[in-house]
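Hi there. Long-time user, first ticket. I'm pasting a complex I've been working with (about 374 residues overall). I'd like to know whether the download I got is complete or cut off, because the file seemed smaller than I expected. Thanks.
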Amino acid sequence: MNAQMPSKVSLPGVKQVIAVASGKGGVGKSTVAANLAMALHISGHAVGLMDADIYGPSVPIMFGLGMVDPKTTVFPIEKYGIRLMSMGFLVDVNQAVIWRGPKVAQAVQSFLTQIDWGQLDYLIIDLPPGTGDAQLTLSQSAPLTGAVVVTTPGEVSLIDARKGVKMFGEVRVPILGIVENMSYFEDATGTKTPIFGVGGGARLAQESDVAFLGELPIDPRVAQCCDQGEPIVRKYPDAAIARSYMALAKTVADAANKPTATALPFLQL
Amino acid sequence: MATDPTPVTLKREGDLLKIEWNDGITTTVPWKTLRAKCPCATCIEERKKPADPFRILTSQEVEAGAPLPLAMLPVGHYAYKIAWNDGHDTGIYPLTLLRELGDKK
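Hi, the file is complete. Here it is re-exported in full:
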């Protein structure tokens, strides 16, 4: 398909398509996307997770998977009950994907269209950082229900997150809300120490007039679980952060199920 | 952001595109204007150059005659892509541009 000519993709079996985005890298988009997908699954929904980060896919490692033989594997791959697709299944981790934009757009398109996602309540899309090809392709051709924007509390993250919010505004993808990740560290005595500043997520939500979906604390086990290939929501369901994720899943599900932007009408010739 | 007007109906009325918006306003814009204001990168570059006083129409343009749309398809929630009778189809017209170019009634 010509990357300049986005065609509208219809995913008849998928009820809600939710993009997890942020302007900035390293704020925990993939971690949030993986745990949000896991939390939605634990809440009893059929969930898929599509890794749209073509250059730096992280879904495979977070789910304890690696490269597979595409000739003998049926995509999406199912793990812990979640249907997964990622560039990391197709390319060796030690290999770099050195592609120009149109190829990225094409890959994202084919993940959406050429893969049989089946019947899903939620398809979570883990976007790469920035406001480039992958984001634009999805905004133009995927039936997005809305986007969740992830930020950390500090201003450095906010300036980029603001651009992400702005982009979704321009392409009129509804923003379901803003999640603040790495809000604070809580020690054994219950004292909360903010590491990256305070209140950025809530501030951004207020200034851009969108919902604030909540704060996610820092827990060293989050990174550990990611590296070991099992999302923390599943491995330590009693951890404070796991409970935060379960609450986030409920909020996101509620926001996504509210009627949002309707499809544009066709021209009557 | 959520309050930006969106089209309710789009109709082709001869040489005009008529759009009824959800805020009660109806706009009309000639297809010719839309073709001339094509927002694709090639056309924007073309418009930056000084006009060629001796420009000769291509045979494709002559055959097509007045610009008319063959198709006008929604792009995401924010724009339309128009395929023209002269073969050009790379322009994505955001709703804000369609609104700006229209005569309001």
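A couple of notes from our side: Residues 14-256 of chain A form a domain with the Rossmann fold fold (CATH 3.40.50.300). Residues 240-257 of chain A form the longest helix (18 residues).
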